[in-house]
Amino acid sequence: MWCHPTALVESDEIGEGTRIWAFAHIMRGARIGLNCNIGDHVFIEEGVTIGDNVTVKNGVCIWTGVEIGNGVFIGPNAVFTNDLYPRSPRLSVVKDRYAKRDWIKRTRVGEGASIGANATINPNIVLGAYSTIGAGSVVTHNVPDFAKMMGVPARQRGWVCYCGYPLEKRDSQSLYCSACKHEVDVTRAAKAFVK
C-alpha cells in the first residue's frame, strides 16, 4: 500500500498495491482490497468493505453499510447514503433510534459496476454486476446486472456489456457487443429486477 502524506489512514486492512491519495480519510474497521485507487478527499467510514481493483475518484464518501464488489468504478463526487429516515442524532425524539445500529441500511455494488460522477445511491439498494449508473442520476430501486440507468429518479435506458459499451439486440434472449464481441443473456437479470 502507498498513501499520500496528507491522507489519514486508520485501518490496517488495506491490500497490497492500493494507492490512497491526498486528504483521504480511511477509518479504522474499513476494509479495502488489493490494487485499488482511492482519490483525493475520499472518506471511507468504519464497516465499509471494498473489493479488489476498485477505483474511487475524488470527493466520494462511502458510509457504514456499503459493500463494494471487485472491479467497481465510482466517479467523482458520487454519493452513498445509509439512512432511510435521517435526522440529527442529537434530537431528543430520535436519540433512542440512533443509540442502536439497526437504522443502518445496506447497499451492495456488484462486481464491475460503474457509478457516474455526482450520482446518488439511496440506501437499501443493490446495484447489479456490470451495471452502469449515469452521471447525476439518483438511484431509488435495485438495479439488474448489465443495466444502464439514467435520470432522476434513475430509469433503465438499455443494457451495457462487461466492457461498458452498449449492447445491441441479437435475438429475443441475448444481446451483443459490437466493441468486444461478447454476447450477454440479460433475461435472468431482467427477471430479477425489483422495482
Let me know the average pLDDT.
Answer: 93
Radius of gyration over C-alpha positions, nearest whole angstrom: 18 Å
Distance between the termini: 40 Å
What is the overall silhouette?
globular
Q: What is the name of the CATH topology?
A: UDP N-Acetylglucosamine Acyltransferase, domain 1
Helix/strand layout:
Blueprint: E1 2-3, E2 8-9, E3 19-20, E4 25-26, E5 31-32, E6 37-38, E7 43-44, E8 49-50, E9 55-56, E10 61-62, E11 66-68, E12 73-74, E13 79-80, H1 95-99, E14 107-109, E15 114-115, E16 120-121, E17 126-127, E18 132-133, E19 138-139, E20 147-150, E21 155-159, E22 168-169, E23 174-176, E24 183-185, H2 187-192
Parallel strand pairs: 1-3, 2-4, 3-6, 4-7, 5-8, 6-9, 7-10, 8-11, 9-12, 11-14, 12-15, 13-16, 14-17, 15-18, 16-19, 18-20
Antiparallel strand pairs: 20-21, 22-23, 23-24
